[in-house]
Amino acid sequence: MAEEEKKGQKVEKGKVQVKTTGRKIQVDADSLARILEENEDFKQRLARVEATADLGRLEHFDAKTRKVGPLRYRLSTHEGKLITGWRTKVNKMWKDGNIMKHQQEYEILLEDNTKVSVSGYDNFSITRYEAQVIAEQVKRETENGSTILTLKILGLPSAEDPGRVETEANKSPMYEALKPLFGREVSIDATFVN
C-alpha cells in the first residue's frame, strides 16, 4: 500500500488518519470533505444573516442571553468616609436688578452620621464625584417603598477603565486614604449610589 504523510496526517487510499493525543480516528476522505464544505457553507450563511439582520433585534437577543455578573455601583466618599445621603437645605433664586442670584446649600450625611454643609451646586458635585469607590451588589431588598442595597466595596475605579477596579500595582494617591473601606459590606439606599 502506498502511504503519503502530510502535516501529521496519513493518507491511505481514500482514508484520512488523524493523530490525536492517545487516540486514532479514521475518517473517509469524501466524508471529511463534505463536512468541511458544509461547515464553510454554514459560516457564509451565518455571516449573511448577521450582516442583514436588524441590529436592534440582535442587541435585544444578546442582552437577553448574556450572562450578567453581579451589578457594580459607585459610592461617593468624603474625607475617607462613605456618603450615605444628602439633602438640599436651601434653594433660593431671586432677581437683584438685572442679575439673577441663586443661593444653594446642601447637607451631606456620612456613614458615621456626621453632617457636612456645602454651599453651591458646583461644590456639592465636586464633593460627590471627587472620590468614589466601586462596590458590588450582594443583596437587594425593598422596605417601605425604598430599595436598600447591600454592597461590598471592591476598591477605586481604574484610571484606564473606570468600570474596573484599580489594582494595588498601579494605585493612585487616593488609594491609601480609602483603603480601610475596601472589603467592607455596607447597606445604603439605592438613591445615594451613582
Describe this structure in words.
The strands form two sheets. The protein has a seven-stranded antiparallel β-sheet with strand order 8-7-6-5-9-10-11. A four-stranded antiparallel β-sheet has the order 1-2-3-4. It has 194 residues and is α+β, with helices and mostly antiparallel strands. The longest helix is centred in the first third of the chain and has 24 residues, at 29-52. The chain starts with a strand and ends in a 5-residue tail after the last strand. Helices cover 26% and strands 44% of the residues. It is elongated and about 90 Å long. The chain has a domain at 72-192. It has four helices and eleven strands.
What spatial order of strands do you see in the largest sheet? 8-7-6-5-9-10-11
Q: Helicity level, as a percent range?
A: 25-40%
pLDDT averaged residue by residue: 82
Oligomer: single chain
**Largest beta-sheet characterization:** 7 strands, antiparallel
Shape: elongated
Distance between the termini: 74 Å
Radius of gyration: 30 Å
- Structure summary, number of beta strands: 11
Low-confidence stretches: 1-7
Order of helices and strands: EEEEHHEEEEHEEHE
Query: What is the count of DSSP helices, taking H or I runs of 4+ residues?
Result: 4
